[in-house]
Design brief:
Elements (H helix, E strand, L loop, with lengths): L3 E4 L2 E3 L5 E7 L8 E7 L6 E6 L5 E3 L7 E6 L4 E6 L8 E8 L13 E5 L2
Length: 118
């Protein structure tokens, strides 16, 4: 069973930055596509960014130019660098593994809370 643990969330002011990490159990980061998703209160979970095993990235339109996804195969880690944060980025962020970005198949972890507020 795949276990994913997210960390790095916190509270920042608009325009600030955060760096989220997702550590995976086993050797899955370089085998499956990895994705970041988020869920704001009262809203459905949505795709944020993804990276294939071949390194191809994909982003939701609302984060293009602000967020960057990367992975470290040796550390079984996927990172989401978030810059120019906006209040509407406030959500719990989750990572998942799957056959392609935007297609989560692994069980959801506890997520990490991101709050953007002045």
């Amino acid at each position: 069973q795949v276990v994913l643990v997210e960390s790095g969330g916190g509270s920042v002011q608009p325009g600030g930055s955060l760096r989220l990490s997702c550590v995976a159990s086993g050797n899955i980061v370089n085998t499956y596509a990895m994705g970041w998703y988020r869920q704001a209160p009262g809203k459905q979970r949505e795709f944020v960014a993804g990276i294939t095993s071949g390194g191809i990235t994909d982003y939701a339109d609302f984060v293009k130019g602000r967020f960057t996804i990367s992975r470290d195969n040796d550390k079984n880690t996927v990172v989401l660098q978030m810059n120019s944060l906006k209040p509407e980025d406030t959500a719990v962020y989750y990572c998942s593994a799957g056959p392609a970005p935007g297609i989560p198949r692994s069980s959801w972890g506890q997520g990490t809370q991101v709050t953007v507020s002045s």
